[in-house]
Amino acid sequence: MKLREHHGKDYDWDDLSHAVLDELSIDSDEHKYRHVVIDEGQDFSPMMLRSLAAAVPSDGSLTFFGDMAQQIYGNRMSWRSAGLNVNEVWKFEENYRNTRQIAQLALAIANMPCFLGDADLVEPKSPTADGTLPALVAFKTESEEELFVAQRARSLGQIGTVAVLFRDREQEKKFARALPNFATRLRRDLSSWPTAPTGIFYGTYHSAKGLEFDAVILPHLSEGRLPHPPDVQAFGQDDANARDARLLYVAVTRAKSTLVLTYSGKPTTLFPANAELYKRSGR
After folding, report:
1. How confident is the model over 24-62, as pLDDT tens digits?
2. 3-class secondary-structure state, position 90
3. Do 112 and 48 share a structural domain?
4. E runs forming strands in the chain
5. Domain harbouring 245, CATH code
6. For the whole model, what pTM was predicted?
């Protein structure tokens, strides 16, 4: 509270939905919006949903879109847990982005134990688009791994869009030096989106949410890197596994046709065990 007052702020981000709900409970004015549409709703907290629902008049509607497998902020939220009275549910089961091979890996990740118990998960139909198996490439050292990733990104960036995605900003900053100057960093304040059919992009799993690329490279998928050690320390092993498995799901599903996974030493335990999901190789 003292920190908030020091910066002249009335509310913390986490307090805003509570404040909105409190104000709406005593507000007798006519509501401005009859219909509210929520996209990427899986990252809203139950209180956020309740406050938005309270803003809808009795003759209005609230429409919620969300993929519960993509909850990346630890809310563990669904419209059920928000206590909403849902009148109608549509389930979108078609996958128009990924090849069948990439979608199968994503589904295997979503079916891991840390995803169990989420009643709102929708298992998509297998895509008709065919492609190559995701490549799982092992290295002895991280320096060898990073050299390969930089070279692979350059080659893939000449024939389509490729994104190199990292678990955190520190990994991203370190690796950015190995990429060409024309590579585009993914960030929220990106003023314009490049329209060229080719190019290299890089950023965190979080920054790629909602985007898609012809190819995606995911480096540092090693046992000591994923789950994220700071998360293990802060939240415990089980919660860290759940958080990072969901992030991995988001990152994998950004790829339309080509997916390259790399690690040095031992691979992360968040990989599904089914060897038929990958094309393995070592360097």
Report:
1. 777 777 777 888 888 777 677 778 888 888 888 888 888
2. coil
3. no
4. 35-38, 61-64, 135-139, 161-166, 184-185, 199-204, 213-218, 255-264, 279-282
5. 3.40.50.300
6. 0.76
